[in-house]
Amino acid sequence: MSTLPKVAWIGLGIMGSPMSENLVKAGYDVTGHTLEREKLDRLTAAGGTAAASVADAVRDADVIVTMVPASPQVEAVAYGPDGILENARRGALLIDMSSITPQTSVGLAAAAKEKGIRVLDAPVSGGEAGAIEAVLSIMVGGDQADFDEAKPLFEALGKTIVRCGPHGSGQTVKAANQLIVAVNIQACAEAVVFLEKSGVDLAAALDVLGGGLAGSTVLARKKDNFLKRDFTPGFRIDLHHKDMGIVTDAARTVGAALPVGAVVAQLVASLRAQGDGGLDHSALLRAVERLSGARVRSLPHP
Q1: Strand blocks (E) in the chain
Q2: Distances from the Cα of 66 to the Cαs of 19, 75, 96, 207, 239, in angstroms?
Q3: Partner of 58 for a Cys bridge, out of 8, 140, 157, 196, CB 3.0 to 4.6 A?
Q4: How far is CA 159 from CA 139, 180, 226, in A?
Q5: With bands split at pLDDT 50, 70 and 90, how would you rate the model's confidence at 103?
Q6: CA distance to 55, 76, 163, 260, per residue, from 59 (Å)
Q7: Does 1 score more than 90 pLDDT?
Q8: Is the dihedral of CA 11, 13, 16, 21 positive or negative?
Q9: Taking 90 as the threshold, does the pLDDT of residue 226 lie above it?
Q10: DSSP at 267
């Protein structure tokens, strides 16, 4: 019998599926629930167990992990008679790895405490590739003792694992992460259009830029997306639009000015309004092309 804690995993999307599978590979007993049958089949094929409901998944779990799109979905699976708080056992540890508002995380921790359930907010960065390769950056908010208990589980999912402070701190750092990523992608996209319009060999230019001070994880990860105009979603514009709303609102609350972030938030919103919300966030390139009068290549039909 494994001495590892029993894990319930709620949400098996682009990130949740490979992350839960990495826990199975690490020896954890993982029971998952999501709304898509094929995602449940994928988990069982990897060695996990499928549950028909949130309540069934969490009832016997020592650790419950949620990885869903936004605050409303976290609240939907956490609250109510069929939710986590009403069905998990006292003493269980709830780790929310979704990217949501810091206020939602603080509220969830307070509500869970009344039920004897401990909570960490632990959003991640690294995208689909980081999830698959188990090299995510994990930023955590919550009590130190709960963080220490969860550390071995986090180590099966990521490489950079840091407790950033009390409840909500992980989400605040994730919001800052999404601000930096969006601004970086926008800068890269503008550089790509500038280089192409100037007649430069784009592949050569991106190689040399990647080796200098302009180099970044964003440029390294998204270079092929730019070169091939491949916007298969690793992280969708729709989700980055949600995250830019989170950071804009949180910054207003604390009185921090985000002048460049505000502009990029509007560019993300405009790209979504033009029907590109389901594309990878590297598709910010398409917005720059439209603004520059460049030909925006039509996308292949799925």
Answers
A1: 7-10, 30-33, 49-50, 63-66, 93-96, 118-121, 124-125, 136-141, 158-165
A2: 11, 11, 5, 38, 16
A3: 8
A4: 11, 20, 27
A5: very high
A6: 6, 17, 27, 46
A7: no
A8: positive
A9: yes
A10: H
Q: How far is CA 118 from the centre of its chain?
A: 22
Give the tens place of pLDDT for each residue, 150-168: 999 999 999 999 999 999 9
Average pLDDT over residues 282-287: 97
Phi-psi region of 48 (alpha: psi -120 to 50; beta: other; left: phi over 0): beta
Q: How far is CA 149 from CA 5, 94, 119, 208, in A?
A: 10, 12, 12, 43
Which of these is catalytic: 174, 222, 223, 242? 174
193-220 per-position pLDDT tens digit: 999 999 999 999 999 999 999 999 999 9
Q: What's the pLDDT score for residue 299?
A: 73
- Candidates 190, 186, 283, 174; CA nearest to 233 is 283
**Distance from C-alpha of 30 to C-alpha of 62, rounded to nearest angstrom:** 11
User: Residues with Cβ < 8 Å from 192, sequence gap 6 or more?
Assistant: 202, 206, 226, 285, 288
Q: Catalytic site residue 39? A: no
* CA–CA dist 62, 8 (Å, integer): 8
Distance CA 110, CA 243 (A): 23
CA angle 135, 141, 146 (to 5 degrees): 90
In order, the DSSP letters of 134-198 are T-EEEEEES-HHHHHHHHHHHHTTEEEEEEEESTTHHHHHHHHHHHHHHHHHHHHHHHHHHHHHT
Kindly tell me the burial class for residue 230, based on how many C-beta atoms sit within 10 Å of its own C-beta (0-12, 13-18, 19 or more). middle
End-to-end distance of the chain based on CA atoms, in angstroms?
45
Handedness of CA 52, 53, 59, 65 (dihedral sign): positive
What sign has the CA pseudo-torsion 279, 175, 194, 206?
A: negative
How far, in Å, CA of 130 to CA of 113, rounded?
Answer: 32
Distance CA 67, CA 17 (A): 9
